[in-house]
# Entry
Amino acid sequence: MKLGLIGGGNIGKFLLQSINNDQLVDGAQFVGLYTRNQEKANELAEQYDLRSYQTIDELIASDIDVIVEAATVEVVRTHAASILTHGKDLVVSSVGAFSDNDYFLQLETICKEHGTTIHLPSGAVGGLDILKAAKAIGALQEVALTTTKPPHALNGVSLEKKTVLFEGNAYEAIKQFPKNINVSIILSLAGLGSKETKVKIIADPKASKNSHEITAKGAFGNVKLVVENDPMPNNPKTSYLAALSVLSTLKHKDQSIKVG
Ligand SMILES: NC(=O)C1=CN([C@@H]2O[C@H](COP(=O)(O)OP(=O)(O)OC[C@H]3O[C@@H](n4cnc5c(N)ncnc54)[C@H](OP(=O)(O)O)[C@@H]3O)[C@@H](O)[C@H]2O)C=CC1
Ligand SMILES: O=C([O-])CC(=O)C(=O)O
# Structure
C-alpha cells in the first residue's frame, strides 16, 4: 500500500515514524508528502525516505493508493473531492470537515462513482460502536459531549478558574474550535448528526489531560464514557490517542476480519 501524507505536524510525524521507520503496518509505506512549510517537508522527505511535493495537486496525481490527511479541516474541504475522483482512498484526521450533512452526502456519491473509500478514525474518543448500534434501529435519543482541556490546549488565554468556553451543538462547536473539537463530529456521524449532538467545551487551568466525557441514551439503555487523554508531547491540543487511532485505521484497513 503506497501512502501519501498531507501535513507534517504531530500526527503526520508520528505516522511517518510508525510506518516508514518502525514498520508497524504490514506492506504499507509513505512514498509522498505535502506539508505547508517546504523546508520542513524537505527535511521529513530526507529523514523518512520519501518524495516531497510542491503542491497537494501534485501529490494527488502521483502513484499512490491512499492519502492520509493530518493537516486541517480546511485542507480536507478543499481537496477531498479531488483525491477521491483521482481514485485514491482517503484517511482523515480532521474529521470536523464532515460537519455538514450535504457535503458528506456529496462525497459519498463521489466515492460510489469512483470506487473509493473515506476512512474516518475514531480519533481521541471511543464509544462509536455503541452509537452506531443504537442508531441502526433509530433507538438513539440523546448524545452529549463535554470536553475539558487545559487553556493552553484550547484558545491559549490564561485563566484563573474553570471556564465554559462553548455550549451548543457540534455543528457550531467545530466552526468555533476547528482544531479542538473534531471528536464532536465523529460522534455526530456515528450518532445523531452535528445539529443534534450537544457539546460543552471547558478550559480548566488545573487539567493536565484532554478529557472527553460522552453520554448517550436510547432504547438500549444508557452509556457514560470518559476518555482521559495524555496530550502529544509537541502539540498539547492533540491527544496521543488521536494519532494512535489513525495508525490503527491504516493497520486494519484491508483486513479480512473486521472487529467492531
Ligand atoms: N479526530 C480527532 O480526534 C482529532 C483530530 N485532530 C486534527 O488532526 C489534524 C492534525 O493534527 P496535528 O498533527 O496535531 O496538528 P499540527 O498542527 O501539529 O499539524 C498540522 C500540520 O498541517 C500542516 N498544514 C496546515 N495547513 C496546511 C495546508 N493548508 N496545507 C498543508 N498542510 C497544512 C501544518 O503545517 P505548518 O507546520 O507549516 O503549519 C502542520 O504540519 C488537525 O486538524 C487536528 O485538529 C487532532 C486531534 C484529535
Ligand atoms: O485531541 C483531542 O483530545 C481532541 C481534539 O483535539 C479534536 O477533537 O480536535
